[in-house]
Amino acid sequence: MSLLEARDAGILHPGAIRVHRPRRSGRKIMILINYQVKHRLKFIGTLLFELQFKNF
């Protein structure tokens, strides 16, 4: 029995094997990119904010 068959039969935990589904992985990657961009924007925003205060 293959690992996928075992997974489908419920012998293995469904999360134990990751089946490649381009649609889902693509969405995960987009979420990751969005998260990183937001994080960077927040970081840059605070940096500029601090620089403004230092200039005054």
What would a concise description of this structure say?
The protein is built from 2 helices and no strands. By secondary structure, it is mainly alpha-helical.
Question: Which helices and strands, and how do they pair?
Answer:
Layout: H1 3-9, H2 22-55
What structural keywords apply?
56 residues; mainly alpha; 2 helices
Model description:
This protein is mostly helical. It has a domain at 22-56. Helix content is 73%, strand content 0%. It is built from two helices and no strands. The radius of gyration is 22 Å and the shape is rod-shaped. The N and C termini lie far apart (71 Å). The model has no long low-confidence stretch (mean pLDDT 68).
Catalogue the unreliable spans: none
User: What is the number of helices?
Assistant: 2
Mean pLDDT: 68
Strand/helix succession: HH
Helix content: over 70%
Distance between the termini: 71 Å
Q: Strand portion, in percent? A: under 5%
Shape: rod-shaped
Q: Total number of β-strand segments?
A: 0
* Quaternary organisation of the protein chains: single chain
Radius of gyration: 22 Å
| Major beta-sheet overview | none
Helix/sheet category: mainly alpha
